[in-house]
Amino acid sequence: QANFSDDEVAAFRHAFETYDEDGSGAIHRDELTGVIRGLGLALRTKEDQKRLVSLIYAARNDARESGVPEEELGIDGSLLVQFWVFVHLCRIIFREKEEK
Fold first, then answer.
1. Neighbours of 27 (CB within 10 A)
2. Which of 20, 23, 29, 36 has the fewest CB atoms within 10 Å distance of its CB?
3. Among 86, 83, 82, 100, CA closest to 36
4. What angle in degrees, to the nearest 10, is found between the helix axes of 46-65 and 83-99?
5. Residue 2 has what pLDDT?
6. Looking at residue 1, what is its pLDDT?
7. Other C-beta atoms within 10 Å of 4: how many?
């Protein structure tokens, strides 16, 4: 569970389902705007966009390393964000904010 409590995972699940507007079980590129705003990320410049892509890739790798099955990770190189990738993305961003 990425070192989150059951209550925290439930909160992430609720947030994920809110951002997954079409109910597909994944947050697609066009649904990422809500995630970006919700996490307090900037997306004004090409550098901001590159950073978001890097964060998604890092979250997917973290999820993989923590034992999330491949079928729950989405496709490498894709901006498709499935639940456990979303959880790890939040974890990375929260950690960065705590370090500031």
1. 27
2. 23
3. 86
4. 110
5. 59
6. 56
7. 14
DSSP 100: -
Q: What does the DSSP 8-state code read for residue 27?
A: E
pTM above 0.70, yes or no: yes
CA neighbor of 27 nearest in space, from 69, 70, 1, 60? 60
Residue type, 21: E
Question: How far is Cα 70 from Cα 93, in angstroms, rounded to an integer?
Answer: 22
Confidence (pLDDT) at 62: 94
Count helices and strands in the chain by DSSP H and E runs = 4, 2
Residues 67-90: what's their mean pLDDT? 92
Q: CA-to-CA distance for 59 and 89, rounded, in angstroms?
A: 5
| pLDDT tens digits, 19-72 | 999 999 999 988 988 888 888 888 889 998 898 899 999 999 999 999 999 999
